Amino acid sequence: AADIESCFRQIEEALVDIPRRDYTLLVDTRGGPSRNDSTFESVAAAHRGKLLLGFARNAALAATAAGRLQIQRFAKVDGRVVFATDSVSAAFEYLGLPPHAV
To answer: What is the residue-wise DSSP string for 10-51?
Structure first.
């Protein structure tokens, strides 16, 4: 839980001065661990809104179907729209970005 909170805190600090409504956000979860235990769910719920809120559009990359379903479930619970995919090019297209390396 401490590692998750620390990671979210670092992201929040990096984004604090960004005028989010002017930007899209791509979150790449493909290298992260697959977790849905109660500790992870609780910590993620406490922080994910601070990360996603306010961007013009949100997309997330997940390596597995289970990961994409988890992202979609989180978005639904939070009342947000997040395009979850395993395709970098599909994420860029959704966000209105030209293809480039991630």
So the answer is: HHHHHHTTS-GGG-EEEEE-TTS----SHHHHHHHHHHHHHH
Contact criterion met (CB below 8 Å) for 62 and 70:
yes
Going residue by residue through the chain, which has 102 residues, state the pLDDT in tens, using 9 for 90 and above: 778 788 888 988 988 899 999 999 999 989 877 777 777 778 777 777 777 889 999 999 999 999 999 899 989 988 889 999 999 999 999 999 998 876
26 contacts 59 by C-beta, under 8 angstroms:
yes
Residue type at 100?
Answer: H
